[in-house]
Design goal:
Rossmann fold; Sec-Metab_Biosynth_Hydrolase; alpha/beta; AB_hydrolase_1; Alpha/beta hydrolase family protein; hydrolase activity; about 230 residues; six-stranded parallel beta sheet
């Protein structure tokens, strides 16, 4: 089974390494899409084209997984790659029905969507900030490794782009870490229900469960993949 992993706005593709290894131990292939090859001013459609060129002639109908701010691109990427399923890992879900971009959506009721303590913080300048908000549930060895995966992903144009791809066009599962210190768990539950009509799987831990609990995330992904696999 093939999984495409889409990083968020705070980590490089290397942030998926522990999950890639966990999936490999279960006999599955994970491919990490790097969004940095697209100019920051490009719209969501450019990222979909980038993903399609990168995927080329690889296996059809992968499961596409997006983390955090990568969720703004997930519908376009999943549809471009003809995904069998899309998985939202502590990810923003676009407001397709309301037509609001991420910036507008968060601006309407910011404290309902995002932890106000996170707003304005710079995890790249201060490892204490990164540890507190992103990796607070990691053991020390994992934390040291995780801090090395930090990389900003400037996607201002995407965050200001009104969603054009319906997130309900591909079946979804939402993975919700109940101790998230970035996105509000109540908002994630509501978004999964109202914007996706999707099952919500709740996990222990914080905003980066693929870092702190890769085995648990891999088990959920493999279960999702088995239910949706279309290959012979």
């Amino acid at each position: 089974m093939d999984f495409v992993l889409v990083h968020g706005t705070t980590q490089a593709p290397s942030g998926w390494d522990r999950l890639v290894e966990a999936l490999a131990r279960r006999g599955h292939r994970a491919h990490c899409l790097d969004l940095a090859g697209v100019p920051p001013a490009a719209p969501a459609t450019a990222y979909a084209e980038h993903a399609l060129r990168w995927w080329a002639d690889r296996a059809p109908t992968p499961v596409v997984v997006a983390h955090s701010g990568g969720g703004a691109l997930l519908p376009a990427l999943a549809q471009a790659l003809h995904a069998s399923h899309q998985v939202w890992l502590a990810a923003y879900v676009p407001d397709f029905d309301g037509g609001a971009c991420l910036v507008e959506d968060v601006g309407v009721e910011p404290e309902a969507v995002v932890n106000p303590e996170w707003v304005g913080q710079d995890p790249f300048a201060d490892p204490v900030i990164a540890a507190h908000f992103l990796f607070h549930d990691c053991d020390l060895a994992t934390l040291r490794w995780a801090l090395g995966t930090l990389r900003p992903f400037p996607a201002e144009a995407v965050h200001r782009h009104r969603p054009s791809a319906d997130p309900r066009a591909v079946p979804s599962t939402y993975l919700l870490p109940v101790d998230d210190r970035v996105l509000r768990p109540d908002w994630m539950r509501r978004a999964a229900h109202e914007r996706l009509g999707a099952a919500c799987v709740e996990l222990l831990g914080g905003h980066c469960p693929h870092v702190a609990r890769p085995e648990s995330v891999a088990d959920v992904l493999v279960g999702v993949g088995r239910r949706t696999d279309r290959t012979p």
